[in-house]
């Protein structure tokens, strides 16, 4: 009799534990659903408000006092040019630093200092980079509120992302590749340039895309350097008809970018402008989502394809 | 001295091969490239130094006008008014309240998602949910700000009728949802690095998945999870656009989440939007505010980094 009672009790305990297991399973799914639902709400809200404004004219008009004729021409041109500066300055520097830390750096205090520093830089709030840029680029170096200053600011911001991606991509290459290269008489740089960099290229590319996607959406540092919010003209063209055919005047031109334009419209009291903000936000979200999705896809393919 | 040695060894070595110049040049090139790479890596240290230098330089001139005591204890922050007060407390209170709300949302939800994905979910669910969360983390913060102001605030006003158009509550809630992917991915990383045999031991003793997750995996991954939480705090404190748009820009010493208030970051944005002359006291206040922000986040970042390093070493 008592044995049966014990068995009964045991069954109850097991049932209770299984019940809690189920409860947690459900709450885990619910938590995930909250994240997903928020995303859906965010997207539909913008779609409802912004989609009617999306037309060819919206992309080819300057911002305007009249909401129905305002567009994002100067914003997307500005974003493209700023991203160009950011990519050109952050990518080589980040890859070089990543290679040094992973392949060359001796294990000493100095190396560790650089490593801690990179990890910390990744955690510094973006607005602090804006303050640095305001003091250094805008006033100390006299670049003013130009495309160059904004591009360099965002380059500093994504530098840690590129460095970390480069390091992780290089680290995942097996040591045997290096040994094989050295055994054939290659120097360190030859090994890096001919073997490690090509093999880690997809990984590095993934990091670069994620970094640039982040830079496109950054608003705070650009506001901090004092970028104007109402720009109804384009920077001078980088291509000229006479010799030497390229011009760098656009680097020093005032500009606006997509998130700034959106911020400007969000802070207007008139409702019509907020529809414009939704439309600009939609373009921005689609751009960053596409870039992130590309990066995720690249990483997925890489993981499937490469088996050392 | 060193390079002379190298040169002589190169010469000795290449006497047998008869290709003297080549070897020495090659060595020089190697050293040159290494130097370039070192400079690139050192550049990141340079950035940190210039951030600290710039903030401190402008703050020093600020603190010549305003005593540190006044900065820390005055209960008003009105640097741009005629009757100027320079107390950082109202900005700190706004930052603390909005971050606390964000963390109240992000930490429980993020942890639950992480446990679910790492211990419960099937392979397929995980493969779909993880990239999705990553996409969610990639949405620009300004878009979240728009969402907070025009979707969440009206929604909250249905529940709390006298909620103003700007409030710490809606900014904090949206910020919390924004940080969820950040918390969940780092927490999950920490939990996945716990070796499988610990789980197997627990299952062998008859524990359920929930018991294993709570009593075995989480304690084993403790330092990693703690690091994730700390880095989330630093992220919430430094977040700018959501609070600048949805919480208002009025410095307000309050602990009430249904009021509007400015955070440190929102103040910097507000000043930058105006046209302040370079070198004025208003210009210097944003650097003093920035320095305060940097110090707060730096403490959390270093702590988080140390904890992360510890769990990486253990397993």
From TrEMBL, chain A:
Family designation: Belongs to the binding-protein-dependent transport system permease family. CysTW subfamily.
Keywords: Cell membrane, Membrane, Transmembrane, Transmembrane helix, Transport
Topology within the bilayer: Multi-pass membrane protein
One annotated GO molecular function: phosphate transmembrane transporter activity
GO BP annotations listed: phosphate ion transmembrane transport
Keyword check for Membrane: yes
InterPro entries in the cross-refs: MetI-like, MetI-like_sf, Phosphate_PstA
Stretches that traverse the bilayer: 21-48, 73-101, 121-141, 147-165, 219-236, 278-298
Compartments where located: Cell inner membrane; Cell membrane
Organism: Nitrosomonas communis
All residue ranges annotated as the ABC transmembrane type-1 domain in the record: 76-295
Pfam families in UniProt: BPD_transp_1 (PF00528)
Main location: membrane
Gene Ontology terms: cellular component: plasma membrane
Gene3D superfamilies with a match to the protein in the record: MetI-like
Protein's name according to its UniProt entry: Phosphate transport system permease protein PstA
UniProtKB/TrEMBL annotation, chain B:
Domain named ABC transmembrane type-1: residues: 92-304
GO MF term (any one): phosphate transmembrane transporter activity
A Pfam family that the UniProt record links to this protein: BPD_transp_1
Any Gene Ontology CC annotation: plasma membrane
Membrane topology: Multi-pass membrane protein
Coiled coil (UniProt feature): none
Keyword Amino-acid biosynthesis among record annotations: no
Regions that span the bilayer: 35-56, 88-117, 138-160, 166-183, 212-232, 281-303
One BP term from GO: phosphate ion transport
UniProt keyword list: Cell inner membrane, Cell membrane, Membrane, Phosphate transport, Transmembrane, Transmembrane helix, Transport
Protein origin, superkingdom: Bacteria
Locations listed in the record: Cell inner membrane; Cell membrane
Family of this protein: Belongs to the binding-protein-dependent transport system permease family. CysTW subfamily.
Matches recorded under PANTHER family: PHOSPHATE TRANSPORT SYSTEM PERMEASE, PHOSPHATE TRANSPORT SYSTEM PERMEASE PROTEIN
Job description of the protein: Part of the binding-protein-dependent transport system for phosphate; probably responsible for the translocation of the substrate across the membrane.
Official protein name in the record: Phosphate transport system permease protein
Organism: Nitrosomonas communis
């Amino acid at each position: 009799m008592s044995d049966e009672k014990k068995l009964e009790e045991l069954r109850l305990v097991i049932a209770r534990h299984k019940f809690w297991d189920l409860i947690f399973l459900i709450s885990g799914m619910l938590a995930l659903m909250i994240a997903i639902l928020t995303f859906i709400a965010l997207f539909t809200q913008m779609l409802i408000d912004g989609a009617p404004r999306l037309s060819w004219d919206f992309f080819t008009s300057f911002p305007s006092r009249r909401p129905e004729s305002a567009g994002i021409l100067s914003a997307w041109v500005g974003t493209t040019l700023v991203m160009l500066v950011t990519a050109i300055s952050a990518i080589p520097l980040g890859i070089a630093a990543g290679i040094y830390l992973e392949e060359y750096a001796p294990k000493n205090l100095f190396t560790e200092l650089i490593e801690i520093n990179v990890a910390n830089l990744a955690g510094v709030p973006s607005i602090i980079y804006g303050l640095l840029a305001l003091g250094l680029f805008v006033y100390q170096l006299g670049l003013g509120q130009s495309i160059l200053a904004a591009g360099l600011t965002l380059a500093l911001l994504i530098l840690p992302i590129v460095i970390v991606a480069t390091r992780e991509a290089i680290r995942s290459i097996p040591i045997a590749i290096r040994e094989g290269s050295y055994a054939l008489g290659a120097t360190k740089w030859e090994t890096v340039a001919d073997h490690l960099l090509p093999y880690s290229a997809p990984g590095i590319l993934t990091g670069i895309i994620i970094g640039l996607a982040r830079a496109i959406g950054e608003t705070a540092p650009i506001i901090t350097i004092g970028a104007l919010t109402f720009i109804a003209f384009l920077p001078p063209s980088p291509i000229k008809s006479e010799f030497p055919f390229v011009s760098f005047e656009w680097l020093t031109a005032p500009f606006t970018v997509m998130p700034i334009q959106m911020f400007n419209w969000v802070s207007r009291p008139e409702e019509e402008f907020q529809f414009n903000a939704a439309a600009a936000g939609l373009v921005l979200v689609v751009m960053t989502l596409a870039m992130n999705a590309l990066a995720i896809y690249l990483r997925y393919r890489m993981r499937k394809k490469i088996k050392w | 001295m060193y390079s002379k040695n190298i040169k002589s060894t190169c010469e000795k070595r290449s006497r047998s091969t008869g290709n003297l110049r080549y070897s020495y040049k090659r060595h020089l090139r190697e050293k040159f490239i290494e130097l370039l790479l070192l400079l690139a890596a050192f550049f990141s240290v340079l950035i940190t130094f210039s951030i600290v230098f710039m903030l401190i330089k402008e703050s020093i001139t600020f603190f010549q006008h305003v005593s540190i005591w006044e900065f820390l204890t005055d209960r008003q922050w009105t640097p741009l008014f005629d009757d100027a007060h320079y107390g950082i407390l109202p900005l700190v209170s706004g930052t603390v309240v909005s971050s606390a709300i964000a963390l109240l949302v992000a930490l429980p939800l993020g942890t639950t998602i992480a446990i679910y994905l790492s211990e419960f979910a099937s392979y397929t669910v995980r493969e779909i949910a993880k990239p999705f969360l990553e996409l969610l983390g990639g949405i620009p913060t300004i878009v979240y700000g728009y969402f907070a102001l025009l979707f969440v605030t009206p929604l909250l006003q249905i529940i709390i009728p006298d909620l103003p158009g700007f409030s710490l509550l809606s900014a904090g809630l949206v910020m919390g949802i924004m940080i969820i992917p950040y918390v969940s991915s780092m927490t999950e990383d920490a939990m996945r690095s716990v070796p499988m045999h610990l789980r197997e031991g627990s299952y062998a003793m008859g524990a359920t998945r929930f018991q294993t997750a709570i009593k075995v995996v989480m304690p084993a991954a403790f330092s990693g999870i703690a690091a994730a939480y700390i880095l989330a705090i630093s992220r919430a404190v430094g977040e700018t656009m959501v609070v600048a748009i949805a919480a208002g820009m009025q410095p307000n010493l309050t602990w009430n989440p249904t009021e509007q208030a400015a955070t440190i970051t929102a103040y910097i944005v507000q000043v930058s939007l105006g046209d302040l002359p370079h070198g004025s006291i208003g210009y210097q206040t944003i650097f003093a505010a920035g320095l305060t922000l940097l110090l707060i986040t730096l403490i959390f970042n270093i702590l988080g980094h140390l904890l992360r390093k510890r769990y990486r070493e253990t397993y």
